[in-house]
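Private note to self, pasted from the team thread so I don't lose it. Backbone tokens:
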């Protein structure tokens, strides 16, 4: 059995991770931490887990977590994980960070977008970006895995094959993305109150969202050159889900068949990517680790519109973290993630 610790277990992503790990046949939960609820049982905070997960919550002590576990999941706000992780810990244990601290390879870029000093910039070279569909081989060998963000997972997967196969112009790429409220986290914020969100749709962090450099970094690797794009997120009145609608101009002579072939080449064998003919909807991926993908060609403007949908708390956070753990420990990648969702 793989012994697992979750630090930050009572946030939305952390609690979803506890849910998935508690049902994983190869995992034993040994250490749950939440700075806000030390001494309480996990099931006191989430009564749905009574008699299922009754572990007492500990403080955010990564040394104690390391002593009792094989894998440590960090579900913390940015700038905290990088102060906890050390070279010594990742020599012995696998660390999977659901936060932002190890996603960007350049600490100066991190500081610019997150307005915080990175706590362990020397470890960035050890970190692997944990998007299995792109970096599976590196994940398998890594002890420090940077779990991607939710907007980034959906947007990168929608555009990656098009850039990898040189089918679209690298200038003028636009991503219009929408997220459920759980993507903003569990902390109290006026903007996330029911009366502020219900019957309302709003853009936020326009031209300044912190996931922008993460998307650009990975798509630049795909294109083999630096990419600059427009990313605009929106908050919509639902609990969970991401829908990314991505716009790009096709290169001269590229056909719908070429686009379809690029997606099939990259994703046909991927267990959690579904290339579908109908347009993706968040309700069909809710509670699953699937990424649903479809596209349309606008011949009038010679453009491709690629649309992706995920559950932000599963494929966009906890489910992807479990997928990364499965890969790192040479398990069946689908183990613990076979949820099919519903309507």
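Design output:
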């Amino acid at each position: 059995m793989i012994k697992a610790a979750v630090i930050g277990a009572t946030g939305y992503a952390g609690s979803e991770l506890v849910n998935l790990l508690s049902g994983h046949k190869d995992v034993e939960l040994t250490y749950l931490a939440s700075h806000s609820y030390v001494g309480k049982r996990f099931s006191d905070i989430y009564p749905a887990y009574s008699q299922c997960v009754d572990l007492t919550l500990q403080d955010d002590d990564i040394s104690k977590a390391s002593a009792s576990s094989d894998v440590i999941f960090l579900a913390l706000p940015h700038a905290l994980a990088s102060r906890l992780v050390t070279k010594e810990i990742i020599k012995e244990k696998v660390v999977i960070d659901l936060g932002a601290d190890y996603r960007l390879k350049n600490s100066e870029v991190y500081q610019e977008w997150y307005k915080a000093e990175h706590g362990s910039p020397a470890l960035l070279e050890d970190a692997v970006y944990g998007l299995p569909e792109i970096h599976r081989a590196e994940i398998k060998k890594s002890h420090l895995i940077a779990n991607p963000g939710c907007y980034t997972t959906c947007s990168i997967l929608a555009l990656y094959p098009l850039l990898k196969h040189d089918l679209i112009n690298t200038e003028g790429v636009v991503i219009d993305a929408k997220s459920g409220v759980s993507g903003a986290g569990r902390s109290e914020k006026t903007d996330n109150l029911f009366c502020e969100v219900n019957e309302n749709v709003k853009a936020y962090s326009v031209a300044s969202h912190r996931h922008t450099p993460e998307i650009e970094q990975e798509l630049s690797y795909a294109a083999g050159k630096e990419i600059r794009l427009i990313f605009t997120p929106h908050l919509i009145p639902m609990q969970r889900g991401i829908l990314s609608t991505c716009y790009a101009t096709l290169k001269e002579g590229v056909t719908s068949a070429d686009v379809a072939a690029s997606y099939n080449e990259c994703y046909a064998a991927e267990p959690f990517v579904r290339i579908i003919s109908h347009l993706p909807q968040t309700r069909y991926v809710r509670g699953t680790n699937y990424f649903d993908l479809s596209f349309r060609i606008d011949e009038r403007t010679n453009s491709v519109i690629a649309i992706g949908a995920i559950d932000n708390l599963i494929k966009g956070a906890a489910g992807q973290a479990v997928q990364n753990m499965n890969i790192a420990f040479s398990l069946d990648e689908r183990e613990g993630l076979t949820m099919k969702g519903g309507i």
